[in-house]
Design brief:
Structural class: mainly beta
Largest sheet: 13 strands, antiparallel
Radius of gyration: 19 Å
Distance between the termini: 15 Å
Number of strands: 13
Strand content: over 45%
Helix content: under 10%
């Protein structure tokens, strides 16, 4: 799947170091570097240039495999976000438990986010059921968040359908969200068709 809706779904990480620079056009029409993305052994960082000319991190992603057995893997992903001066502003930790079967996989993921004091608190539970038939992969994503009572309730469901045709990948996504106080899914539904992704 080329489109990674969640960081922990991006399991195909290169083990070599790579660097990519993103460019934008300024008011004078000149192409200038706006961000740099560095990847090494599965860890990634996005860097930008601060007002004093030095490069500061915007976001760093670290991926660690905690357990790996045939058909089963537990992965920890830590995302650290920084302010314009390069100071740490937020941390997100995701622990995903993936079980593979003959036609797809199931991922149970727990997401922890830092509060105002920097402590990590459980904020989301996600379940991703993926099934592949031929060139089509369907991923059903269920997101649960803590309600007013403190118990986790289903807040959102997503369906991502990916079709691979040669070097072209087409993806569509539908979203269903709970409105506050609603008992059913489907209060807010949207569908979108992503632009084709061409392999380079």
């Amino acid at each position: 799947m080329r489109y990674c809706f969640y960081p922990f779904l991006c399991a195909g990480l290169a083990l070599a170091q790579s660097s990519t620079t993103e460019y934008t056009v300024d008011l004078s029409g000149h192409r200038v570097a706006s961000a740099e993305f560095v990847s090494k052994d599965g860890d990634k960082a996005e860097l930008i240039q601060s007002i004093n000319g030095r490069k500061v991190p915007v976001e760093r992603t670290e991926v660690k495999v905690l357990t790996e057995q045939p058909g089963h893997k537990v992965t920890e992903t830590i995302v650290r976000r920084y302010d314009a001066d390069g100071r740490l502003s937020a941390t997100e930790r995701t622990v995903s438990d993936e079980t593979k079967n003959a036609s797809g996989s199931t991922i149970q993921a727990t997401v922890y986010r830092s509060d105002a004091n920097g402590r990590l608190q459980e904020s989301e539970r996600r379940t991703i059921e993926s099934q592949t038939q031929g060139a089509t992969t369907t991923a059903d994503v269920t997101i649960a968040r803590a309600g007013l009572s403190g118990s986790f309730e289903t807040a959102e469901k997503r369906k991502i359908v990916t079709v691979v045709d040669g070097n072209t990948t087409r993806e569509s996504e539908s979203v269903a969200r709970h409105a506050q106080g609603s008992r059913g899914i489907g209060d807010a539904r949207q569908s979108r068709r992503l632009a084709d992704l061409e392999d380079e």
